[in-house]
Fold this sequence. Notes:
The chain is mainly α.
Amino acid sequence: MLVREFNTAIKIDKDYADAYYNLGILLEFLDEEDEARKNFENALRLEPDNELYIKKSGK
């Protein structure tokens, strides 16, 4: 499943904002809203000026 692949990417590179964002998108699709939000916030923490991350994190 893709969740495992995104988590592996994050374990390899904890600063990989796109992996957090894309994992958030997948989790959102799977109706895991709280976990999705956490991943969007992690992506935003790494790239605070990214408009997609700002929009998805609700900030």
